[in-house]
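Researcher: Sequence recovery benchmark, item below. Answer with residues only.
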């Protein structure tokens, strides 16, 4: 393990994944506060936490099986492309929602909220 940390690529990867996981955890924790602030209900906050965790259980277990079948590089490239497309879609929805005043439940997510704040 210590020999592996001497390689710059491994150190960079370790730092990147550490900060990414930390950011995801803080974001998920903040979402619970936002859910409680919007609803003032412990029940809705609990449902929000369950809705955040459920996809990991539903997709994660079959995803582990699929990850064992396919080459890792192939999966990482394809899933990164899907992730980028989904983020771009959310951004475009947020921009058009902010420009034309067409708000849906998506205005509660990060990117549209940031776009609407910037444009006002």
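Model:
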């Amino acid at each position: 393990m210590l020999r592996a940390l001497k390689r710059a690529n491994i150190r960079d990867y370790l730092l990147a994944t550490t900060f990414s996981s930390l950011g995801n955890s803080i974001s998920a924790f903040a979402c619970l506060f936002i859910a409680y602030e919007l609803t003032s209900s412990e029940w809705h906050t609990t449902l929000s936490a369950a809705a955040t965790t459920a996809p990991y259980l539903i997709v994660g277990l079959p995803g582990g099986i699929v990850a064992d079948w396919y080459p890792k590089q192939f999966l990482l490239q394809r899933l990164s492309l899907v992730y980028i497309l989904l983020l771009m879609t959310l951004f475009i929805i947020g921009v058009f929602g902010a420009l034309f005043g067409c708000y849906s439940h998506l205005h509660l997510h990060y990117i549209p909220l940031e776009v609407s704040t910037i444009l006002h």
